[in-house]
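Batch job 17 of 40 flagged for manual review because the log was empty.
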Amino acid sequence: MTLTIAGLKVRLGFSWILLTLFLTWSLAQSYFPTSYLGLESRTYWWMALAGTAGFLGSLLFHEWAHAAVARRRQFQAAASTLFLFGGVADTKTEPPDPKTECVIAIAGPLSSFGLGAVWYAAFEVGYHANFPLAVLGVFGFLAFANTLLGGVNLIPAFPLDGGWLLRAWLRRRNNDLRRSTRLACLAGSLCGFVLMMAGFFQVITGHILAGVWWFVIGFFLRETAGASYYRLVTQTTLASMAIRRIMTPNPVTVSSDTSVQQLVEDYFHRSFHNMYPVMENTRLIGCIGPKQISAVPRDRWAELTTRDLVIPCSKDNTIDVDSNTEAALSLMNKTGNSRLLVVDGGQLAGVVTLKDLSKFLTLKVNVTPAS
């Protein structure tokens, strides 16, 4: 689910929805009953719903602060995927310099600390004005939650804001974006592991709810750290690598007058490829795969040819040989095609598959030059 709030696009994944439900339950069953005694059960649930809504609003405000500063610095992410302690920006480029990265990163924690101060002031005003205890409880929780949100985000572990600050500092020292990202993500992964172990220790010592929260936070931090580094490698590597370096040149082709029966017996049952370019003389007219054949009754295989079933060349299944691999991956994601025909001036130059791109990226991620 994607929300657009004050110009900021935010994605909420299914896992975040589960965490929101768990947060509401935790507040209603543990935090508020322990902190504010003597209220009815339904009151605690209303407090929990209000507290969860307020916390979601705080996260959105935190991300909006990042986006607002980024826009002022002429750098903007397409969207932000929200997780428990902030968001991960979906960017096609990285901040142009360490200073810009630092300013954007610090905006989030400062906004959370500021919002925490506002909620604390509301709590103080409400306390002296004799507001209901339930209202004071929600104000107090939001003051605490925003302060915690700002503090946790200053931990130097990518992709938390402190991890961005760490990466900005490393970039300034070594002027190497990839190496700086790798080190910052390593810090994030290690921090996530420590939190997971801390959560496990809490559980075995009887503090089950607190332990589950620590474990969940650590798990998400560890996963997002690895994903962030992979995303950077994907961006920088795919954008700089031409399709001609990855594609399979001179692929096996099929003549347009080949019968479906012959296609199955001499091609699919022998070469085991999932897609074949279809040629009419020397002209590429499209491609064919098992899906097209499976839609034809077997008793018609001998009378039909690949010309009858071919998928014509289009912008959805072809890509120019001079395009970069990022464009190929983007097209695959957009169309759902895992195989593309690579053309050069309208002529077949090769075939590129999602498997080819995956192997290439795995190699780039795992084989890192010594530094």
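Reviewer: the log was empty due to a logging misconfiguration, but the result itself is present. The first strand starts at residue 2 and ends at 5. Unflagging and moving on to job 18.
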